[in-house]
Amino acid sequence: MIQQYFQRGVGAGAVAGLAYGAYMALVGNPLSEHVHEAGHGADHTHAGAAEHAHEAGPAVSEATTAAVSAGSGVLWGVLLGGVFAVAFYLFEPALPGRPETKAYVLAGVGFFSVSATPWLVFPPAAPGAEHLYGIEVRIAAYLGLVAVGLAVSAAAVAAYRRVGSERPGLGLVAAAAPVSAAALLLSTLAPQTVISPELPADLLAAYRGLTVLTQAGLWLVIAAAFSRLQRRGGTDRAERPRTGALSSPE
Asked: How far is CA 113 from CA 56, 183, 236, in A?
């Protein structure tokens, strides 16, 4: 049965990856180029080098860059979709909510754990930004922050299940408490990790905001496509056993 879940996850990830790849090719790459140029606008040395490079011709065509971005987006979506499907298969009985909303709950957990929590310490870096820590430190910190995000998400789900069955509104408040506390602590205590180029504050905020929204949209599309494929799949959810270590107590 897990193969069926995995196939649906890969299909949902492919749909989300196509949308994400198209965004990167049409919006993300031009925006990054604009941010990069804005960050070096006052650097006359860079401007001279750029002019020389322009005269020599671009090393990689825009079409090639767009194709690579689109392909990378599809691969990233398929990877997330496959992981999403396996996690859904394992944890579906413990997820709160109606069957048609459980995929969205898991997508929220994924976005908060994989993207949002690490970004509280390592915000999305604009082109030209300087990282203050080496790659080994950043990878170790990222994995640790993902673990923190998963632990906080588990606490939020447990809090909702404790009080949300009879009072959904109160359950949402209880679930939001550990998430808000973790976000406040991490954003307050985190050291500076990135030195951004000299950019207008509104441009930097827009770049980071679009990065966050794009990743949130990717998770949302995966959840929506997976949920639709689940409904089309029919009865295998009903056939699943509701007992086991990962099942929620009735």
From this structure: 44, 11, 28
Query: What's the 3-state SS for 98-120?
Result: CCCCHHHHHHHHHHHHHHHHHHH
Task: Say which amino acid occupies 199.
Answer: L
Q: Locate 62 and state its tokens.
A: 């825009």
Residue tagged 């930004």 (tokens) = 129
246 CB contacts (<8 Å, ≥6 apart)?
90, 91, 93, 94
Residue 149 Cα to chain centre, angstroms: 12
61-106 tens-digit pLDDT: 677 777 787 788 889 999 999 999 999 999 999 999 888 899 999 9
- Enumerate the domain spans of the chain: 2-239
The DSSP secondary structure of 14-82, one letter per residue, reads: HHHHHHHHHHIIIIIHHHHHHHHHHHTTT-HHHHHHHHHHHHH--SS-HHHHHHHHHHHHHHHHHHHHH
Global pTM reads 0.82
Sign of CA dihedral 101, 102, 105, 106: negative
